[in-house]
Each structure stands twice: as structure tokens, then as C-alpha cells.
């Protein structure tokens, strides 16, 4: 009957020496050489402390049903027509206001509770002699992110387009993309930009000036912009037909950058340190076994119980 | 004879590895000098840094001579402490100088490596010489 090794276990041998001996000094140096170089290696090869990270989330975007429209006509005296959902703005512009019909519908294609698209249509009634050459349109949204910090802001999509020939319809099709100049926080509530883009309660004309609205908006560190560089103009308007503006805006999945928290940073630093430490521990374990076993430094080897027993027997 | 036969070849190998890298640095010192100077420099500044590095390398070679003399003559070949000390320091030096060459470190770092890994073992070697020849003590 052949015999197979079923079980084995290591027997420990310990080496003793005084605290002020060469052996103790050797051990102190080797321990320092085991634990400090991995830190140096991990640090010098960059990326030890995670300073910025990214994650993916689909934001919760809702159209606020606030619209500001300016349509430039083809006369040389700079005539324009305007309409908005702000009563004060309409009062300030008096005769230039042309009441338009607006229809908006949001769609949740994948039924996950977050809207994915906005279908917006605006019809601006025109007299047969009026021709539209340029359009400026602001639509406002509420934008919310919840995975890391609870980030809520009021943002806008600004469409500006002009065409050399009088147009009949304008079709805009784009995504509402997030622009970050600064990473977001990893926890807490962030409502710095939860302020309406256009202050509807203000009575001052300067607050409805497109230039100052845009200036204040782009000062923000986190904004949204509409990514459509080529709105499509259709020409050949029938005499009594209104000018139609069709806007389709998608709310895509965003990759958002943020400052990682303390534990996330420590976790990644620890992974890097320990994986290099394992190699150093293994190497210096072999060196220590060689040095102590061969008495390169003088120590007193202590035998285990079994060897002691056998010594007494023989 | 000392009881450990593995220490002598290890010491020889680490000494030679360190020596080879120091000689290599004589040829590749241009990158390191450029790393220590600002992006636009005059040829005077270059020559000054160059002569400093060449001085350091030459002194290293001199200290190597002392240590190799002590090793080959048998004065410290079988002394376990000196062997271990020398192996550790020259190993660190070989690794650091490999980084020095590949990562183009500044010339000032060479002085640190020089102090710890060339001056120290040569110093202990000289102490061994004194112990053996002057104080007439056996070295192992």
C-alpha cells in the first residue's frame, strides 16, 4: 500500500539575542527597509492619492415652462418681436410683444422615472409683411443629481440662430450637456445654483436683458448647454402661416467628476501600498531566514518542544 | 574560514553591480546635468554642474578601490558584519543609481547616494584595516 503525505505543518524556530545586539539592529534596519520603500514606490509612480474621480448618472431634468423669445425681423430699423412667460418682461416691451402659442411635452422613453426628451413647439404669428431672420430663445430647466451630493440647480438652454433668407420654420435638435469647471462634492446638499436663471419677480429692465442673463449664468462653475451647432431653417413661409420653432432636447446620461471622500481615497492608497508591501515582505522574509539560520548575526536559536523532547530521549 | 559561504559571492556581486553603474553614469551623465539646470542655461553653468558630477564619480571610484582592496586582500572578506553591511548598502546604491539613470534625477541626489552608500562602507572598511593591521585583532 503506497503512502501519501496527508498533512504537514511548520515547526517554528526562534532566535534570541539582547536588545543592544547586532541582531536587533539588523532587525530594525530590515523592518524599516520592508515598510518604507513600498510607500516610496507607490508615491513616486503617481496616482497614490486619488484627487478627482468620475461617475455616471442620468440627471433628473424637468422643463420649467419658462420661455423667453426674441425674433429679429428683416427691416433695417432693427425691428423685433418678442414674447415670454414673464409678465414684467412683456410689459416692458409693450408693442413688440406678439403672443405666441407654445406646446411642450416631456417623454420618459425607458420608463425609469426620469425624463429623457423634451418636445417643444412655439408658433409665432406674423403679418404677411414680416420676415424673421434671427431668433434668440431661452428655455429653463431644473437639473438634479442625487448619487453623490444632492445637487439641484436651475439651468437654461440658450438657442441663438440666424439665417440670411427669411425663414418659415426653425428646427433645433440637441442634447442638454453638463459643463463643469469644478468637480462636485461627494456628499451633502449643493444648492448654490438653485436660483432662477431669469428672475421673474424683478421689476427692473436690466434683469431681463439677455446679455446680463447670459453673463450671470456663465459665471457659474456648473452649467448646462445645448449641443446643437446647426439648427435647421426651412424657408418659404405661406403668407398667413406663423413662424414655427421646433426644439427637441435630449437629457443624456452624464459622466460627472467629483472630489472623492476620505475613505475612498484611503481605500485606493491602501490597495496600492499593500500590493507592493507583499513583495517586499516576501523578499525580506527570505533574507531574514538566511541571516538568522546561518548565524550571520549572533543569536541563540531556541528549539521547539518536539526537538527538545527528542534531545532528552537520545 | 567564516561559517557562511553565501555572503562572499553576494558581496562581490553587489560591489561589482554598483561599480558598473557608476562607470555607466560617466557616459550618461548628460541627461542628469540637463535635469539639474533650468530650461535655458549657459555653457558655463553646464560645465560647472558637469565638473561637480565628475568629481563625485571619481571620488566614488577611489572609495571603491579602498573597499575592493579590503575585500580581496581578505581583511574583511570573512567578517560577517562588514559583509552584511556592505551588501545592504551597495544593493541600495545599485537600485538608486539605476533609478538615477533611468528617471534622470538631479545631480544633487547623487551626493546623498554617495554619502550613504559609498562613504559609509569605505569608512567601515578603513576601520577594519586599522583593527587588523594596527590593533592586531583577528577580523572574524
Structure description:
The complex is a heterodimer of chains A (314) and B (140). Chain A is of the alpha+beta class and 314 residues long. Chain A has 5 helices and 14 strands. In chain A, the strands form 3 sheets. In chain A, strands 3, 4, 5, 6, 7, 8, 9, 10, 11 and 12 form a 10-stranded mixed β-sheet that branches. Chain A has 2 domains: 21-49 and 262-300, no CATH class; 54-258, no CATH class. By secondary structure, chain B is mainly α. Chain B has one domain. In chain B, 79% of the residues lie in helices and 0% in strands. Chain B is built from 4 helices and no strands. The longest helix of chain B is centred in the N-terminal third of the chain and has 30 residues, at 7-36. Chain B is elongated. At the A-B interface, helix 1 of A face helix 3 of B.
By helix and strand content of chain A, what is the structural category?
alpha+beta
Number of helices of chain A: 5
Q: Count up the helices of chain B.
A: 4
Strand content of chain A: 35-45%
Helix content of chain A: 25-40%
How many strand segments of chain B? 0
Task: Output mean pLDDT of chain A.
Answer: 91
Overall geometry of chain A: rod-shaped
Report Rg of chain A.
36 Å
Sheet of most strands of chain A = 10 strands, mixed
Number of strands of chain A: 14
Q: Tell me the count of domains of chain B.
A: 1
Low-confidence residue ranges of chain B: none
In terms of DSSP E residues, the strand content of chain B is: under 5%
Annotate the secondary structure layout.
The complex is a heterodimer of chains A (314) and B (140).
Chain A: E1 14-16, H1 22-44, E2 53-57, E3 60-73, E4 80-84, H2 87-93, E5 101-107, E6 117-124, E7 132-145, E8 150-180, E9 189-190, H3 210-218, E10 222-227, E11 232-235, E12 243-250, E13 254-258, H4 262-293, E14 300-302, H5 305-313
Parallel strand pairs in A: 8-9, 8-12
Antiparallel strand pairs in A: 1-14, 2-13, 3-4, 3-7, 5-6, 6-12, 7-8, 8-10, 8-11
Chain B: H1 7-36, H2 43-72, H3 80-102, H4 107-134
Pfam families (chain B): TMEM107
Membrane topology (chain B): Multi-pass membrane protein
InterPro entries (chain B): TMEM107
Amino acid at each position: 500500500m503506497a503512502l501519501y503525505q496527508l498533512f504537514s505543518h511548520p515547526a517554528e524556530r526562534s532566535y534570541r539575542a539582547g536588545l543592544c545586539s547586532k541582531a536587533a539592529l539588523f532587525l530594525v534596519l530590515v523592518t524599516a527597509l520592508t515598510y518604507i520603500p513600498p510607500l516610496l514606490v507607490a508615491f513616486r509612480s503617481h496616482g497614490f492619492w486619488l484627487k478627482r474621480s468620475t461617475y455616471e448618472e442620468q440627471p433628473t431634468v424637468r422643463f420649467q415652462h419658462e420661455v423667453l423669445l426674441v425674433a429679429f425681423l428683416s427691416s433695417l430699423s432693427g425691428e423685433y418681436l418678442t414674447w415670454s412667460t414673464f409678465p414684467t418682461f412683456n410689459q416692458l416691451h409693450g408693442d413688440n410683444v406678439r403672443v405666441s402659442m407654445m406646446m411642450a411635452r416631456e417623454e420618459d422613453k425607458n420608463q425609469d422615472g426620469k425624463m429623457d426628451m423634451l418636445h417643444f413647439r412655439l408658433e409665432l404669428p406674423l403679418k404677411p409683411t414680416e420676415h424673421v431672420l434671427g431668433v434668440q430663445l431661452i428655455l429653463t430647466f431644473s437639473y438634479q443629481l442625487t448619487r453623490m451630493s444632492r445637487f439641484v440647480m436651475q439651468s437654461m438652454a440658450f438657442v441663438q440662430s440666424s439665417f440670411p433668407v427669411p425663414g418659415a420654420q426653425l428646427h433645433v435638435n440637441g442634447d442638454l450637456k453638463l459643463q463643469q469647471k469644478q468637480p462636485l462634492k461627494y456628499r451633502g446638499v449643493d444648492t448654490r445654483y438653485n436660483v432662477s436663471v431669469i428672475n421673474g419677480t424683478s421689476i427692473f429692465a436690466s434683469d431681463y436683458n439677455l446679455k446680463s442673463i447670459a453673463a450671470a449664468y456663465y459665471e457659474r462653475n456648473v452649467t448646462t448647454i445645448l449641443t446643437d451647432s446647426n439648427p435647421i431653417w426651412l424657408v418659404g413661409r405661406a403668407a398667413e402661416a406663423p413662424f414655427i420653432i421646433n426644439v427637441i432636447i435630449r437629457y443624456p446620461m452624464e459622466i460627472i467628476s467629483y472630489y472623492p471622500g476620505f475613505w475612498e481615497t484611503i481605500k485606493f492608497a491602501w490597495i496600492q501600498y499593500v500590493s507592493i508591501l507583499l513583495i517586499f515582505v516576501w523578499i525580506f522574509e527570505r533574507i531574514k531566514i538566511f541571516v538568522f539560520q546561518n548565524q550571520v548575526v549572533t543569536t541563540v536559536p531556541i528549539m521547539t518542544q518536539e526537538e527538545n523532547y527528542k534531545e532528552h530521549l537520545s | 574560514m567564516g561559517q557562511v559561504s553565501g555572503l562572499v559571492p553576494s558581496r562581490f556581486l553587489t560591489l561589482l553591480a554598483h561599480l558598473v553603474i557608476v562607470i555607466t553614469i560617466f557616459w550618461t551623465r548628460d541627461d542628469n546635468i540637463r535635469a539639474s539646470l533650468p530650461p535655458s542655461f549657459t555653457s558655463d553653468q553646464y560645465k560647472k554642474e558637469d565638473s561637480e558630477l565628475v568629481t563625485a564619480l571619481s571620488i566614488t571610484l577611489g572609495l571603491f578601490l579602498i573597499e575592493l582592496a579590503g575585500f580581496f586582500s581578505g581583511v574583511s572578506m570573512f567578517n560577517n558584519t562588514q559583509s552584511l553591511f556592505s551588501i545592504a548598502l551597495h544593493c541600495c546604491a545599485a537600485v538608486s543609481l539605476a533609478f538615477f539613470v533611468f528617471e534622470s534625477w538631479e545631480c544633487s541626489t547623487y551626493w546623498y547616494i554617495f554619502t550613504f552608500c559609498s562613504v559609509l562602507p569605505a569608512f567601515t572598511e578603513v576601520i577594519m584595516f586599522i583593527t587588523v593591521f594596527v590593533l592586531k585583532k583577528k577580523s572574524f
